[in-house]
Design a protein that fits this description.
single chain; eight-stranded mixed beta sheet; globular; binds uridine-5'-diphosphate-glucose; binds manganese (II) ion; golgi apparatus; cellulose synthase (UDP-forming) activity
């Protein structure tokens, strides 16, 4: 008998990208070129061992390793499409699974509550049956100001949700909607805008003052909630607070329609007991939501990522509800995308490699890594290895109302500081502890357990967040990532050993490529200083133009750069943005990644401790103006800038000295590659010279930093000039 379902139109399709064969052929040629270079280095080192050759060999070996590990991303790049319009052939809207949205925030001063509120409102307004939707907010800042913002938001939501529904608004984050000057102005728009502005002013003034005036508390329930902030209540020492702000079974919007659940959670914190940062916060939310609604689908989000498309959950359902899907599908990852990026994306905030090129590459293997936000999980993923009987049915729904006393008691119980003691939370279940990149680490562990993932990359970004608009913040953020990645690289189940066996060689390579990213700092730093120091001493270290090896170098450099640039252009980015990305890559190499390596080593020998330094989302007006003009922001005298300025000075001086040498000795042939290298670095460092010498605004390079780096460059020169081997 014919299967009655076999004529249903597909929910999604998948194809291997056309560029795959070109990638593979190029990889073969490139590998031979690398082997030839390494062979030559080795022979040379054996014949005449010296420090310089050793460092160059070390740099090239690391470059080669990192290049080889990046090939995992290039063997099966995959393109997918989903067809939301076919979903009705598979499931009725009333049978959609429940969806629990988990949002994290950590600090009302770095993450303004109005931003978090906007994120939550945009999710509450999803095109999804409201009775199946719950939004949970974790506040690691333990701040009554954030709670107050959400009490206001809950009231505003009863107007905002029907407004979006009635007018079919696509932009459901209120701030973004009003900012975009909507062309279709509806009769109620002015009124709702006024309501939003009033709420915003009220919340912002409360946050600024740091206290909630009595007259702002309108009912007994709110009074009780706020009264938990006693004098002993501090950010690092307080009991659990679970506050139901909207209850789907009771609350109605102004048109009488049901509302989604909205729950505020601040887990218990006690001094001296580890709380595992965001991973710990998410695990509490996973448990609290399990006691209250236990939806089979869980969406995790950062506080600054608002929804940009109300149909996003339906896209995820196209995979999660497909009866022919691999039963081990664990999560559907959407890329991080950003708004407010300047024209040339000077800080490479879009991270095209991390959020586009690499996930597309992994999607043809076991699936993309988890990037912390914008990810739809099957709840089961958090309870251990995949079972053979997956279920997304609604029998999971919990029967009691979320405001029920018993339910609230168990919600508080699972948010207690010591709840996880003697359990597998963080080791075998939930988000995994042990890395500051809890997202990457958890995704890795899930893949090792046999779960699969899928990359969903719609044309209209599903979520939009904010990327740092300040170089120091940007470098600190990548320093934190660097430490987190090294923690995975040198973890007992490191991707390079355990991963390769567990998830297959290509996936293992992909994970290893990230785990060892901070190692880029070694070859980049060597190439930023050594050939230049040699140039200052008049020593030629690369082959002459007449030698065939000269072309080997040119091929290796141009080949890698061209492939990367093409990858970028194919993902829709501009060439200027690619240029910025390669520049920031070098900056990270000498600065943040080098710092991560040092910080990680110090931690290993027990000298230092590190924490999750939350990325600031506060926007300074003046800085934001400079950012829009594409001007780099230095301003503070941060140690992270020192390697940048030192390298900038070293390259400039050696280039000028090289010119002198060429004129005097006419030895252009032997020095050409060193001169080209220094010239390339100088072009990249242009904004640094400007900031050191030409600029007068507040974002210029602090004079202190410039002076220290002149001294450092000079000291390096002295060290090298007294060592006879170079
Ligand atoms: O103790 C903490 C620290 C952070 N967070 C939250 O974690 C999220 C991410 O923090 P943020 O500082 O914005 O991280 P990013 O610099 O954007 O970092 C990226 O890298 C992180 C891992 O290092 C991932 O968790 C993020 O999803 C990813 O966007 C935010 O919502 C924070 O509120 C907590 O809840 N508790
Ligand atoms: Mn963030």
């Amino acid at each position: 008998m014919a299967n009655p379902f076999q004529f249903r139109p597909p929910l999604h399709t998948r194809v291997l990208m056309r560029r795959t064969s070109a990638y593979r052929v190029f990889a073969i040629f490139y590998s031979f070129a690398i082997l030839a270079l390494l062979y030559h280095h080795l022979i040379h080192l054996l014949h005449s061992p010296n420090t310089l050759s050793f460092f160059i060999l070390l740099a090239d070996v690391l470059f080669s390793f990192l290049w080889a590990s990046s090939q995992g991303f290039h063997m099966c790049p995959t393109d997918r499409r989903v067809f939301i319009e076919h979903l009705e052939h598979y499931v009725k809207e009333s049978d959609y699974p429940g969806l629990d949205v988990l949002i994290c925030t950590a600090d009302p001063h770095k993450e303004p509550p109005m931003g978090v509120v906007n994120t939550a409102l945009s999710m509450m307004a999803y095109d999804y049956p409201t009775e199946k939707l719950s939004v949970y907010v974790s506040d690691d800042g333990g701040s009554k100001l954030t709670l107050f913002a959400f009490m206001e938001a809950a009231r505003f939501a009863t107007h905002w949700l029907p407004f979006c529904r009635k007018n079919k608004v696509v932009e459901r984050c209120p701030e973004a909607y009003f900012e975009s000057n909507p062309s279709s102005w509806f009769p109620e728009t002015d009124q709702i805008k006024l309501m939003y502005e009033t709420m915003k002013i009220k919340v912002e003034s409360v946050v600024e003052k740091g206290t909630i005036p009595h007259d702002h508390i309108t009912n007994e329930q709110e009074k009780q909630a706020v009264s938990r902030w006693t004098d002993e209540f501090t950010q690092a020492n307080h009991p659990a607070v679970v506050q139901v702000l909207l209850e789907g079974s009771k609350d109605r919007d102004i048109t009488g329609h049901t509302m989604p659940n909205l729950v505020y959670v601040s887990r218990e914190k006690r001094p001296g007991s580890p709380h595992h940062f965001k991973a710990g916060a998410l695990n509490v939310l996973i448990r609290v939501s399990a006691t209250m609604t236990n939806a089979p689908v869980v969406l995790t989000l950062d506080s600054d990522m608002h929804s940009n498309d109300p149909q996003t959950p339906l896209r995820a359902l196209c995979y999660l509800l497909d009866p022919d899907m691999d039963p081990n599908l664990g999560f559907v990852q959407f890329p991080q995308a950003f708004h407010g990026i300047n024209k040339n994306d000077i800080y490479a905030g879009e991270c095209i490699h991390v959020y586009q090129i690499h996930p597309i590459g992994m999607d043809g293997l076991a699936g993309p890594f988890h990037v912390g936000t914008g990810c739809f999980f099957r709840r089961e993923v958090f309870s251990g290895v995949p079972s053979r009987t997956p279920g997304l049915s609604s029998d999971h729904l919990v029967s009691k109302s979320i405001g029920n006393k018993e339910v609230l008691a168990s919600a508080h119980h699972v948010a207690a500081w010591n709840y996880e003691n003697q359990t597998n939370w963080g080791t075998k279940i939930g988000y995994r502890y042990g890395s500051l990149c809890e997202d990457y680490f958890t995704g890795y562990r899930l893949h090792c357990e046999g779960w699969k993932s899928i990359f969903c990359n719609p044309k209209r970004p599903a979520f939009l967040g904010r990327a740092p608009i300040n170089l120091n913040v940007c470098l600190s953020q990548s320093k934190r990532w660097g430490v987190g990645l090294l923690e995975v690289g040198f973890f007992k189940h490191s991707p390079i050993v355990f991963g390769l066996m567990e998830i297959g060689p290509l996936m293992g390579l992909c994970y290893a490529n990230y785990a060892f990213r901070p190692l880029w700092s070694i070859p980049i730093t060597i190439y930023a200083f050594l050939p230049q120091l040699a140039l200052l001493k008049g020593v030629s270290i690369f082959p002459k133009v007449s030698e065939p090896r000269f072309f080997l170098y040119i091929f290796l450099f141009v080949g890698a750069y061209t492939q990367d640039c093409l990858d970028f252009l194919l993902s829709g980015a501009t060439i200027q943005r690619w240029w910025s990305t390669q520049r920031v890559w070098m900056m990270r190499g000498v600065s943040s990644f080098a710092f991560s390596l040092v910080e990680y080593l110090l931690k290993c020998i027990g000298i230092s401790q590190f924490g999750f330094n939350v990325t600031s989302k506060v926007v300074d007006k003046e800085q934001s103006k400079r950012y829009k003009q594409g001007i780099f922001e230095f301003g503070v005298s941060s140690p992270l800038f020192l390697p940048l300025t030192t390298a900038a000075i070293m390259n400039l001086v050696s280039f000028l000295w090289g010119m002198v040498l060429i004129f005097k000795k006419k030895n252009l042939e032997g020095m050409l590659l060193q001169m080209l290298l220094a010239g390339f670095v100088i072009v990249n460092c242009w904004p640094i010279y400007e900031a050191m010498v030409l600029r007068t605004d507040r974002g210029r390079m602090p004079t202190r930093t410039t002076i220290i780096s002149i001294f450092l460059a000079w000291a390096l020169y002295i060290i090298v000039s007294v060592s006879p081997k170079i």
